[in-house]
Amino acid sequence: MINTVITVRPMSAHTGAEISGVDLRAPLAEQAYLEIRQAINDWGVIFFRNMALTAAQQLAFARRFGATEEDTHVSNMTGVDGLPEVKEVVKEADDVRNIGGFWHMDQSFYDLPSCFSVLYARELPPNGGDTMFSHLSAAYDSLSPGLQATLEGLSGVHIRAHADSSAMNSAASGLSFGDYVESRKRFAGIEATHLIVARQPESGRKVLYFSPVYTDRFDGWTRDESLPLMKYLTGVLGKPEHTCRFRWGEGSLAMWDNRAVVHYALDDYVGHRRLMHRVTVNGPWLEPC
Ligand code: OGA
Ligand code: MN
Q1: What's the domain count of the chain?
Q2: Ligand 2 mean position, distance from CA 223 (Å)
Q3: Per-position DSSP letters for the chain, written without gaps between them
Q4: pTM of the full predicted structure?
């Protein structure tokens, strides 16, 4: 597609692009919508700067891409401006816990996870608090044909309780082991099984649908058996060449495809507050290859 409305500036070889030329406060005209949709299919995550959006405008933009969700499982996020689909993602100056502080895709512990997430920056620390993204097709494409073939038969079991985990499922930094055990009890049974290798229906590309946080094990394998291969895949997702890193500014908005990228909220701004508004959107899910 030749873009006639937006300008797309890729941030790396595979992952992320900055978009300009469109004002997200107004309803999106059809051509702008199509070009934005193409950009997210090409890059997995797109970024807009200096948007000055209200929560209602953010919600209206997100709704253009599908039905927005009301996440009732995340107790620390309340709706903004009376809009239950606009959630606060906040880290207070004295909080030690960081939401989203390892590679993950949103809500993968449901049978139908969020398709898109739309995150808007409200209050930022003076420096730090960047978000990283890694493309799941770049990860898959980098594997040997032998490992690709091995993974194609596998599914991963994704577990809600691991939202309070850090990499490879130990308690997240700032969370006591006792609280982690409590969380595992509270969210027991909220889990879903997803193919490890699947096809993103819009780009047609294969993805490595794996998260070092939410994926507990390969379906039908023990956790001990799963860990060595999962650790290897964690390194593949984190390979710098597969990633991009976004430095937020006031009024920045990111929109990512949870079928195509994992993301990671950096925890490097101790003593400062950071406040984001998040909306998630349903959509057609990954398909078998
Ligand atoms: C999220 C998330 C990342 C961030 O909202 O799902 O992981 O940088 N946020 O706040
Ligand atoms: Mn997230």
Answers
A1: 1
A2: 24
A3: ---SS-EEEESSSSS-EEEES--TTSPPPHHHHHHHHHHHHHHSEEEE-S----HHHHHHHHHTTS-B----S-TT--EETTEEEEEEEEE-TT----TT-SSB-TTTTSSS--SEEEEEEEE--SS---EEEEEHHHHHHHS-HHHHHHHHT-EEEEEGGGGGB-GGGSBPTTS-HHHHHHHHHHTTT-EEEEESEEE-TTT--EEE---TTTEEEETTS-HHHHHHHHHHHHHHHH-GGGEEEE---TT-EEEEETTTEEEEE----TT--EEEEEEEE--PPPB--
A4: 0.96
